[in-house]
Amino acid sequence: MIILDPLFRIAMIAIDFYIWLVIIGAILSWLVAFNVVNTSNRVVYLIGDFLYRITEPALRPLRRIVPNLGGIDISPVVLIFALYFLQMVLANIYAKMMM
């Protein structure tokens, strides 16, 4: 039990961090789409590329499942809900193990 507590806490922090990466990636993609930020700027390009590489493996399968809503991509929202669900499942498992 001494090792499991930090492992569960690290897993929860990692999921929270990934949720923030998905949110930031979605916001950056909107800013690029509306020409608020320019990807010819090297820093913006590097940040966008990093976020794309980190989030795309999780978003790609969801895009195949989630219906197309006429140019609106709701796969980040579905992924965030799935990650929150995973956090709740992990919290329940942790609570059961501590009893």
**Poorly predicted ranges:** none
| Oligomerization category of the chains in this entry | single chain
Shape: elongated
Distance from N terminus to C terminus (CA atoms, Å) equals 11 Å
Total count of domains: 1
Mean pLDDT: 94
By secondary-structure content and strand pairing, the structural class works out as: mainly alpha
What percentage of amino acids are in beta strands? under 5%
The proportion of residues forming helix, as a percent range, comes to: over 70%
* N to C succession of SSEs: HHH
**Count of alpha and pi helical runs:** 3
Q: Would you count the extended β strands for me?
A: 0
Major sheet characteristics: none
Q: Radius of gyration in whole Å, from Cα? A: 17 Å
List the helices and strands and how they pair.
Blueprint (H helix, E strand, L loop, with lengths): L3 H30 L8 H24 L9 H24 L1
Helix pairs in contact: 1-2, 1-3, 2-3
Description:
The protein is an all-alpha fold and 99 residues long. It has one domain. Helix content is 79%, strand content 0%. The chain has helices at residues 4-33, 42-65, 75-98. It starts with a helix and ends with a helix. The mean pLDDT is 94.
In short:
The chain is mostly helical and 99 residues long. 79% of the residues lie in helices and 0% in strands.
